[in-house]
Amino acid sequence: MRTAIGVDLGGSHVTAAVVTDDGTIHRQFEQDLEDLKFEKVVDVLSERVGAAIKDGGSEVVGIGIGSPGNIDAKSGAVLYSPNFGWENAPLGETLRKRFNLPVYVGNDARCATLGEYTFGIGRNTKDFVLLTLGTGIGGGIVAGGELVLGNRWGAGEVGHHQIRPKDGFICACGKIGCFEAQASGTGLIRHAMAVAPSFPRSTLLDVARDKLSSKKIRKAAQDGDRHALGAWNNYCADLAIGLANIIAFVNPETIALGGGVSSAGDFMLDAVRPQVDALTTMVPKGTTKLLVAALGNNAGQAGAAQMAFRGGLSARATEVAPAG
Ligand SMILES: [Zn+2]
User: Fold this and answer.
1) Which of 98, 188, 237, 263 has the most C-beta neighbours closer than 10 Å?
2) Which pLDDT band holds residue 67 (cuts at 50, 70, 90)?
């Protein structure tokens, strides 16, 4: 069976996985990132990839790397990544020099979308969207069986369409009221802070602000805490606006929700579905299913490996990445 190394490069952690072409992850080699300078990250990444290649043996056909940022899929350069503070970082080229194998680099959220589409909840669909509700909102769109990459690999940045430009939270990208600012895990925390004055006896804020997690708020909401529920309801209202917009743009068969907040499962979906229906106007209602994603953190590694198997993120695999 063909084997590739699928790498999930995050802002604080790297995982290199040995993956076969049926999407099975055989072994993972992980490491925290202490220093985000390009050279330091490449050193850690190379060491983990080297260990994975050794484990994968002679059947390894290539390396696929999912990285945050806008990425030139042809060269594998990270054109810019706010998470790392990189500009024009030659990630693909540097790794090609270190390993005598083809190296492909793609945006991490697009890789996760490809993984979830090929091996997870998106299997057997042709029109599919993945949204990961984590620190930010990562996303990707599959239309007509093809991952949508855009003119300059910018398609799928759904986290940065504005849903509350007048009264929303300031987004990491600098705009106000982006979908990501309102409906990511971080957004849930901000909703909890925003409604706090209405709940003076709330125990939710007894912890230091930097200890307040979206998980704590989500769980408190599920337990019926009034402050957490107030935040949760505002959160779900904003999530529904973004979901209805995505349905208006691409009317996919399925939108899969991943990331930490999606652990709420039906508690989230039951709250959001009727609001999405109410906001869906010119598209036939109920023609897009809202589901929880299936692969969790493994989606990124499986998708990155799939990118290496097919020779690029596109099904047409037109990207060129010479070995060595
Ligand atoms: Zn933004």
Assistant:
1) 188
2) very high
